[in-house]
Design goal:
The structure is a single chain. By secondary structure, this protein is of the alpha/beta class. It has three domains: 3-23 and 101-252, no CATH class; 262-370 and 383-424, 3-Layer(aba) Sandwich (Rossmann fold); 430-496, Helicase, Ruva Protein, domain 3, CATH 1.10.8. It has helices at 11-41, 47-51, 53-56, 102-115, 121-129, 133-147, 150-160, 173-180, 184-192, 225-232, 238-245, 259-263, 280-299, 317-328, 345-351, 366-369, 384-395, 413-416, 430-440, 452-458, 463-479, 487-496, and strands at 80-83, 89-92, 206-209, 220-223, 265-267, 305-310, 332-336, 359-363, 400-405, 421-424. A six-stranded mixed sheet has the order 5-7-8-9-6-10. Helix 15 (345-351) links the parallel strand 7 and strand 8. Helix 19 packs across helix 20. The longest helix is centred in the first third of the chain and has 31 residues, at 11-41. It is globular. The relative contact order is 0.08.
């Protein structure tokens, strides 16, 4: 895992990351506003000209452009030159992967933080209210001046065009819609989110502030004091969160998080079948399972699928589950029993219904479905009857239940006999490992001296381990400002992971 995917240790680290994104957004908006103002001032001679600039700008040509008005656009992709043997220069792609989207990378870091039991206030609020990206970013915009007044001054400039003034630090509704929405359709949908019984306004998280009578677009948005305190707290109190979100109707009050909701991680994977480097027979098994499950969703038949995925760590069990979920256009719910406290096992088991988790992957399945132990050793373990009842219920509704285990014999025979399919994911063979190495460095400039087949032959590791080694080698190369990834970088990554194989 790269350094950019470390968990947020404290709320300050999370806010620093989010505010850095907001900084870039504001600086881009200011640059555009100044450029627009410069173009208007070259033509406008009266206040009326300035007010009507939205109509005539782009129709009238600006005479005598300044030296920097017609700069050639920057190249879409920077190219690196490396000396060729014949004295000419060869063009190489930049030594880095295509950038991962900011929001996608942020969500991954938030998930990693949650796994380490680190509570982040804004993501928690977004999760429990099911807020849209616009609503989350709107809260960030309104919160920013509470962290640094500089944001208030930036808002003031964008809203008035004046660098100094006595207006409020708060952002207007108009500014939020202009910055956070890309087109008219998004603006209409975003504005609708500020009205209605489920809006942030009605929940009294945000409120309108008007300095004088005017339209809603010219109203400012402000966070309630108690929500400012919650969002900036070093250790947010989740009980406070749920008390504030509770409604007069008890049935409509948002429930507090349970061991089950904390244990199950829900994500939306994007794994195509061609990304799985598996034997044809195994890939065919997985695709057949997906087709059978899809048919169950369409016909609403009582034919829930159950499958046992068996394989060493890193052989692609989770990725295979992600491919099935992707093909079904469903989210993937992951539960790692090794990460759940035994006293919560029964409560978690009872919550795993097909309606809520149609595509469910249970890792470390042997914890529940393994060999019998004395009740004194495992007093919290669900009984055989409880597991049987749960498994029968999952089979009676459309969906798929994937049990993951490292070895087949760790799951009791009585349970294996009730599972429709067992898919064994082998360690990748030599040719497959070579493909995995090349796939792991896709888009990366690597030294021509690396013998990928030799690397695949000598290093007999899983696909997951290859991915980690590749990420480590890329990070090492970038830290040294290297133009290409070399074999020495891969060897350093191997040493960091405790692998002692010598690659020549």
């Amino acid at each position: 895992m790269g350094v950019d995917l470390m968990p947020f240790a404290v709320i300050c680290a999370f806010l620093k990351t989010e505010l850095a994104w907001l900084d870039r957004l504001l600086m881009l908006a200011i640059a555009r506003q100044r450029k627009d103002h410069k173009a208007i001032e070259k033509v406008a001679t009266t206040p009326a000209d300035r007010l009507s600039s939205h109509w005539w700008k782009g129709v009238i040509s600006v005479p005598n452009p300044s030296y920097d008005d017609c700069r050639a656009p920057a190249a879409a992709a920077t190219e690196l030159k490396s000396p060729a043997t014949n004295g000419e220069s060869a063009t190489l792609p930049k030594c880095k992967k295509a950038p991962v989207g900011y929001q996608s990378q942020l969500e991954r870091r938030i998930q990693i933080s949650a796994q380490d039991n680190i509570v982040l206030a804004l993501p928690s609020l977004r999760h429990y209210l099911n807020l849209t990206l616009f609503e989350k970013n709107l809260l960030l915009m309104v919160l920013a001046p509470e962290v640094n007044r500089r944001y208030g001054r930036l808002y003031h400039f964008l809203q008035t065009g004046e660098e100094k003034g006595t207006a409020t630090d708060l952002p207007m509704v108009d500014l939020a819609l202009r910055l956070l929405c890309r087109n008219d359709l998004e603006r209409r949908r975003a504005r609708a989110k500020l009205t209605g019984p489920e809006s942030l306004i009605e929940k009294k998280i945000l409120r309108y502030v008007s300095l004088r009578p005017g339209s809603k677009l010219t109203s400012y948005l402000q966070l309630s004091d108690e929500w400012v305190n919650y969002l900036l707290a070093e250790q947010p109190d989740q009980d406070v969160l749920f008390q504030r979100l509770a409604t007069p109707e008890p049935l409509l009050a948002l429930p507090a998080p349970t061991p089950a909701t904390r244990a199950v991680k829900i994500r939306q994977p994007e794994v195509a079948w061609d990304q799985l480097i598996l034997p044809t027979s195994v890939l065919s098994q997985l695709q057949t399972l997906s087709q059978q499950t899809s048919a169950g969703f369409v016909t609403k038949a009582d034919t829930g699928q159950t499958t046992l995925l068996v394989g060493e760590t890193g052989t692609g069990k989770t990725m295979s589950a992600g491919a099935i979920a992707t093909s079904l256009q469903q989210s993937l719910s992951e539960l790692d029993l090794a990460q759940v406290y035994p006293e919560h096992w029964l409560e978690v088991l009872q919550s795993l219904d097909s309606a809520r988790y149609p595509v469910l992957l249970i890792k470390s399945a042997a914890v529940w479905f393994g060999r019998d132990r004395n009740d004194e050793d495992q007093p919290y373990r669900p009984s055989r009857a409880q597991l049987q009842q749960w498994l029968t219920a999952r089979k009676s509704e459309p969906g798929i239940t994937l049990l993951s285990a490292r070895y087949l014999h760790t799951v009791q025979a009585r349970w294996r006999q009730q599972i429709e399919a067992t898919v064994s994911l082998p360690m990748p063979y030599k040719v497959a490992r070579k493909m995995m190495w090349r796939q792991a460095f896709s888009g990366i400039t690597c030294s021509s001296k690396i013998d990928w087949m030799d690397l695949a032959t000598q290093l007999k590791v899983s696909g997951g381990e290859i991915q980690l080694l590749a990420e480590g080698a890329i990070a090492i190369a970038q830290s040294k400002n290297a133009k290409t990834v070399k074999l020495s970088h891969i060897q350093q990554a191997m040493k960091q992971r405790g692998l002692s194989v010598t690659i020549h």
